[in-house]
């Protein structure tokens, strides 16, 4: 590999890691992606974004390893009752698969510390499973808990570690942590401490590395096997739309 700026030959990285970031808009996908890469590549979309923006990817060479991050669509913002919206989300997911060079070493699911785990979060998880396969959370998912700065402020008062906080969770959050094998990392994306930023990134990459001997990367073959789930998702959206249209007809008849 030739570096054109210096004219020097540079050895290519010995390893590469590809990560897909998923979750609701506003949960910190962009900021966490930037923290992982150590530079600003993604622009935060905010919780009111439509989820219809183009899929972007960025990469960095860190410790002789190429880190590639793909920011997935705002799956949680998809209107599952609108076939066109579902088609658009599935199209964006396919784009993300192609940007990942045919696969990912891990799916990073973004949760936001300090807010309730809502029905919309549960629906987002269900949709992720429908798109990528029922076992994607169990086999490939790592939870990235964003807004670590808020957690740090709370910890100053209660002196509770992030690990203990995770162990104390109940209900749907506990079920999610159990399903993903308690693979979670706290991210403070507002920190200016380079050492702290490196530690949280290294923790994430260490967890991802441990996944590989067990399951290998999530591949295009895995994605193809999940096709029935995506078809069911699309059929369900069409049925819901048909039911709504039929109800409108009934309502119009009743009004006449």
Can you offer a commentary on this structure?
By secondary structure, the chain is an alpha/beta fold. It has one domain (16-247): Rossmann fold, CATH 3.40.50.300. It has ten helices and ten strands. The protein has helices at 29-37, 83-99, 119-132, 136-140, 148-158, 162-167, 171-179, 194-215, 220-225, 227-255, and strands at 2-3, 8-9, 15-22, 56-62, 65-71, 103-104, 106-112, 141-146, 184-186, 218-219. The strands form three sheets. The protein has a six-stranded mixed beta sheet. It has a two-stranded antiparallel sheet with strand order 1-2. A hairpin with a 2-residue loop joins strand 4 and strand 5. Helix 2 packs antiparallel against helix 10 and helix 3 crosses helix 10. It is globular and about 65 Å long. The model is unreliable at 1-6 (pLDDT under 50). Keywords: GTP-binding, Nucleotide-binding. This is AIG1-type G domain-containing protein. Belongs to the TRAFAC class TrmE-Era-EngA-EngB-Septin-like GTPase superfamily. AIG1/Toc34/Toc159-like paraseptin GTPase family. IAN subfamily.
Topology:
Elements: E1 2-3, E2 8-9, E3 15-22, H1 29-37, E4 56-62, E5 65-71, H2 83-99, E6 103-104, E7 106-112, H3 119-132, H4 136-140, E8 141-146, H5 148-158, H6 162-167, H7 171-179, E9 184-186, H8 194-215, E10 218-219, H9 220-225, H10 227-255
Parallel strand pairs: 3-5, 3-7, 7-8, 8-9
Antiparallel strand pairs: 1-2, 4-5, 6-10
Helix pairs in contact: 2-10, 3-10
């Amino acid at each position: 590999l030739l570096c054109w700026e210096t004219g020097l030959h540079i050895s290519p990285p010995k390893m590469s890691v590809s990560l897909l970031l998923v979750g609701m808009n506003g949960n910190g996908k962009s900021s966490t992606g930037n923290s992982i890469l150590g530079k600003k590549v993604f622009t935060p979309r905010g919780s009111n974004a439509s989820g219809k923006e183009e899929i972007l990817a960025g990469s960095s060479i860190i410790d002789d390893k190429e880190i590639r991050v793909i920011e997935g669509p705002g799956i949680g913002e998809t209107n599952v009752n609108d076939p066109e919206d579902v088609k658009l989300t599935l199209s964006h997911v396919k784009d993300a698969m192609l940007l990942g060079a045919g696969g990912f070493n891990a799916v990073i699911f973004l949760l936001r510390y300090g807010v309730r785990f809502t029905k919309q979060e549960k629906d987002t998880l269900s949709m992720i499973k429908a798109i990528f396969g029922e076992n994607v959370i169990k086999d490939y998912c790592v939870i990235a808990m964003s807004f670590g700065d808020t957690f740090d402020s709370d910890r100053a008062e209660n002196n509770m570690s992030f690990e203990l906080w995770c162990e104390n969770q109940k209900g749907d959050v506990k079920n999610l942590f159990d399903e993903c094998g308690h693979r979670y990392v706290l991210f403070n994306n507002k920190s200016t401490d380079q050492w702290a930023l490196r530690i949280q990134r290294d923790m994430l990459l260490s967890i991802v590395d441990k996944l590989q001997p067990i399951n290998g990367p999530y591949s295009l073959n895995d994605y193809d096997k999940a096709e029935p789930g995506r078809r069911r998702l699309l059929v369900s959206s069409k049925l819901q739309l048909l039911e709504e249209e039929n109800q409108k007809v009934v309502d119009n008849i009743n009004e006449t």
